[in-house]
Amino acid sequence: MSKLNSFFSICFMALLLFTHSTLKAQSGEVCYNPNLVKDTSKRSIKSAAAGLIGSDSVTITYHSPGVRGRIIWGGLVPFGEVWVTGAHDATTIQFKKDVIIGKKVVPAGKYAFFTIPGKNEWTVIINSRWQQHLASEYDEKEDIVRLNVKSQRHSLTERLQYFIEPGTGASGKIAMAWEKIRIEFPVTFKN
Question: Which residues constitute the signal peptide according to the record (predicted)?
Answer without folding.
Answer: 1-25
